[in-house]
Amino acid sequence: MLPVGVYIAALFVVSITLWVYRWRNPKCNGNLPPGSMGWPLLGETLQLIAPTQTFDTPSFITNRIKRYGSIYRTSLLGARVIISTDSELTNMILQQDGQSFKGWYPPSIKRLLGSVGIALVEGSLSKYLKSMMRTVVGPQSLKKAFSEIESVATRNMEKWASQESVELKTAVADMIFEYMGKKLISYDPEKSSENLRENFDSFIQGAVSLPLRIPGTAYYKCLQGKKKVMMMLKNMLEARQAKPNKVHNDFFDYVLEELKQNDTILTEEMSLELVFGLLIVNFETISQAITVAIKFLTENPQALKELTEEHRKILDNRENPKAGLTWEEYKSMTFTYQVINETLRLGGIATILFREAIKDIKYKDYTIPAGWVVAVCPPVVHLDPVNYKDPLNFNPWRWEGIELKGASKSFMAFGGGLRYCTGADFAKFQMAIFLHCLVTKYRWKLIKGGDIVRTPTVQFPNGFHVQIFEKEN
Fold first, then answer.
1. Quick one: which of 139, 135, 43, 142 has its CA closest to 83?
2. Which bin fits 333, alpha (ψ -120 to 50), beta or left (φ > 0)?
3. pLDDT per residue as tens digits for the range 97-144
4. What are phi and psi of 190, to 5 degrees?
5. Rounded CA gap, 103 and 452, in Å?
6. DSSP 142-174
7. pTM for this entry
8. How do beta strands 353-357 and 361-363 pair?
9. How many CB atoms lie within 10 A of CB 252?
10. Quick one: how many helices (H) and strands (E) in the chain?
């Protein structure tokens, strides 16, 4: 008779084998798209985040399109996922958000975003928080922000021009953080005893790392960075509540008024998560987009020349050369918006968007089972030669005569559907003002760096170091 240990070992092996088999061959009330589920739990996550040194579609995506077609299954971050590079299905997923699909994030990201963060809430609560966000980054707030943004950009560029070299991504992030910190919470780094910006850096560096909650890892530092930021914001809010009659004219004042309402659904935790989200999204994504734009303009002198001429005409047509930008001047920046659209198409902010199927979804010959995650990849749409001729070429002129209003089947740099980015217009607005201030008064040359890596977000591993010179009148 065999020892008991042998039976236990055999049972363990059989159990593991069955688990792996079921993982790789999931059940479905219909036909699942083709694909591979990879290893249990880990799936094909490492292949997805493997860095690529090009703006082209990541090889993880292209290799599977060649093998399985435009719709395929896989496993990422412990979840069963169907990836769509089919434009019709992608558009359906985004447009049916709240009906057939809902938002989804990996557990590791949920921990970072907070249980009541704007990215995670649904329905009426999501609409309510977005309405609050619009007071800061919505279209109606643009006209009020001209002088502030132009002033911050001018002041920072004067400082950069006095330095031998500037790492542009960091410098622009500092500039935007300065503006948003003041606008949201009246934060002044020179007067504060806490370095709020430093803790945000820890958060950003760990947000796209492996989710290992072990001291010393990037993800652990990320969690600690957010914890410190939230404590600082909480202390600031409590200090405001202790002096209710002192007015700061910032977003925190608006939050405090909302919290005082008897019928409000806003909680202190929601308000702090909202402020955190507004700070992190603005300073990180916009600084990335601006740096990518400058990279493209550096490499495309004809585009830079036409952009400069457009803004020179704005100055020449002014009665008062020292006057600030006006709404009419901003609306006349036709080529500027072509540059911005092309920058977002090639180096877009949203690289992969996740949703979860609420019910079984039939599409063509396939079934997307309820509970499965679906992923859409805007870069695939943006680099499809069917949508854009020579898609890897930076060509702002391709947007001539095209007016974008929100997302479309071929352009989704800010997502789409109910989750279309509330601050999309504000992001483009900041980019336009930055470009105006830069090309009218300064020129620059690349010192070092400038190479990009997708992981899958666009990053500059060696920085983007430039020297900035004031133009001679």
1. 43
2. beta
3. 878 898 888 777 777 777 666 677 777 777 888 888 888 887 778 888
4. -75, -25
5. 29
6. HHHHHHHHHHHHHHHHHHHHTSS-EEHHHHHHH
7. 0.90
8. unpaired
9. 20
10. 18, 12
Tokens linked to 443: 């020129």
Cα–Cα distance, 55 to 346 (Å, whole number):
6
8-state DSSP, 461: T
Pairing of strands 353-357, 373-376: antiparallel
Nearest to residue 377, comparing CAs of 399, 355, 358?
355
Q: Report the pLDDT value the prediction gives residue 464, as an integer from 0 to 100.
A: 95
Residue 207 in tokens:
């947000």
Cβ(282)–Cβ(423) below 8 Å:
yes
User: Tokens 């709404």 identify what position?
Assistant: 327
Amino acid residing at 455: T
Non-local CB neighbours of 348 within 8 Å, separated by 6+ positions: 378, 379, 382, 413
Instruction: Give the pLDDT confidence score for residue 1 in this predicted structure.
Output: 52
CB of 334 closer than 8 Å to CB of 310 = yes
Give the tokens for residue 436. Answer: 């105006």
Q: Is the dihedral of CA 248, 250, 252, 253 positive or negative?
A: positive
Whole-angstrom Cα distance, residue 261 to residue 267? Answer: 11
Rounded CA separation 434/314 (Å): 15
Q: Is the pLDDT of residue 208 over 70?
A: no
Alpha-helix runs per DSSP H in 186-286:
196-207, 218-242, 251-260, 268-281
pLDDT tens for each residue of 435-446: 999 999 999 999
The values of phi and psi at residue 269, to 5°, are: -60, -45
Q: Phi first, then psi: what are they for 82, rounded to 5°?
A: -110, 125
pLDDT tens-digit readout, 366-377 = 999 999 999 988
Q: Are 146 and 134 a contacting pair, CB within 8 Å?
A: no
Residue with tokens 């004067």: 158
